[in-house]
Design a protein that fits this description.
With 359 residues, the protein is mainly β. It has helices spanning 169-173, 177-180, and strands at 22-29, 32-39, 52-58, 65-72, 86-95, 100-108, 118-124, 132-137, 191-195, 201-207, 212-218, 225-232, 239-246, 249-255, 266-270, 278-281, 284-285, 302-308, 315-321, 331-340, 343-347. The radius of gyration is 19 Å and the shape is globular. It starts with 21 loop residues before the first strand and ends in a 12-residue tail after the last strand. The structure holds beta-D-galactopyranose.
Length: 359
């Protein structure tokens, strides 16, 4: 029995095997927590989807039971989610209206690197699955964001599907990537989901070659974009978004854009989910003694989600320490969020337990 969290350490499940749910998210449903994440295999092969989305369940968040593969990759080479595609950052939300669990994830088609930049959707009637894959697409084709500028409302000629990977911000600022992707849909990479108090759900993702984030409302059944979205953090290259709400205010943790290598975390807040958002700076402090990394490298990790304990003023920030050379060995850093008068703080702890929330 685990009675505490040990950030960065091997985290055995009920079978004694290190939990395999990277880039994950936790859903609280009827007294049980469900942790969904990327199942990674050993070595560099683990950076692609060889198995699918793994699910674990827990009552106390310390001890997790293996629930198996919630969404399996396909053996059909024609499937979008065929083995060897890239399936990242799966998140699950519960749709009351249809009594269905809805999973979204970032999908890259097999052998196309990160060019496809699609969102994938799968559904299930039971939380741990199995999930049925529905489709993948680039969101919001043919729709301008609510805050589009007049000078963006055109489709630029001559940039085709040019990749802006490694491009300078000056180059990106000169290019209307939003307009380029108007017809085919907006790029959707690192992502998360958020269900607001009124039941409206949102999909937030790194778009426009990762240069700008989009926050996109979902339909009432949570399976498609509703067609209303906003561009936020223009040209700030934010990845790994993790959104949460406290006392009516929205907060987000995100990272810079440096692949598997860690960078400094960012935090922001807004009175309305569609913004305007204000950046608050790096929320982290302290050092992970295992790798010597502090706030400038987010303890060696990258944000993946924030879990609010149901009905409580208690929030856990979750990060991944990626191990791209041996992906299965990636580690999890879960830390409590402490709120301050103007934002929040996340301080490294070698170990901690729920008592952190009552002090
Ligand atoms: C990270 C991203 C991960 C994965 C990785 C690939 O920046 O957050 O989810 O896509 O890049 O290099």
């Amino acid at each position: 029995m685990n009675t505490a969290f040990h950030p960065g350490a091997i985290w055995p499940d009920n079978k004694g095997v290190h939990i395999n749910a990277h880039g994950g998210g936790v859903l609280a449903h009827q007294g049980t927590y469900y942790w969904f994440g990327e199942h990674k295999v050993a070595g560099e092969a683990g950076n692609k989807a060889e198995v699918g989305v793994h699910c674990y369940s827990s009552i106390d968040l310390y001890n997790w039971s293996d629930e198996g593969i919630a969404l399996a990759v396909s053996d059909d080479p024609k499937s979008d989610i065929t083995r060897g595609s890239i399936l990242e950052r799966p998140k699950v939300i519960y749709n009351e209206l249809t009594a269905t669990f809805v999973m979204w994830f970032h999908l890259e088609l097999k052998d196309q690197g990160y060019r496809a930049a699609r969102a994938g959707v799968a559904i299930s009637k039971s939380p741990a699955g199995p999930y049925t894959y529905l489709e993948s697409f680039r969101p919001n084709a043919g729709i301008w964001p609510v805050n589009v500028r007049e000078d963006q409302k055109h489709i630029p000629a001559g940039i085709g599907d040019k990749s802006f990977s490694g491009a300078t911000n000056d180059e990106v600022k000169k290019t209307n990537i939003l307009g380029r992707d108007f017809t085919g849909g907006q790029m959707a990479r690192d992502m998360n989901l958020f269900v607001d108090d009124d039941g409206t759900a949102y999909h937030m993702f790194a778009s426009e070659e990762n240069s700008t984030m989009h926050i996109s409302e979902l339909t009432k059944d949570y399976r498609k974009p509703a067609g209303r979205y906003v561009r936020v953090f223009e040209h700030r290259w934010m990845e790994a978004p993790a959104l949460f709400k406290r006392n009516g205010r929205y907060y987000m943790i995100a990272s810079d854009c440096t692949g598997w290598a860690p960078n400094a975390a960012r935090s922001m807040s807004a009175a309305s989910i569609f913004g305007p958002w204000t950046e608050l700076g790096n929320p982290c402090s302290g050092v992970n003694p295992e790798n010597g990394m502090g706030p400038e490298k987010t303890f060696g990790g990258q944000s993946t989600c924030v879990l609010q304990l149901p009905g409580r003023d208690a929030y856990i920030a979750m990060f991944d320490i990626w191990r791209p050379k041996d992906a299965i060995d990636g580690r999890y850093v879960w830390l409590p969020i402490e709120f301050t008068s103007d934002g929040f703080r996340i301080t490294w702890r070698d170990s901690w337990d729920m008592a952190a929330f009552t002090i």
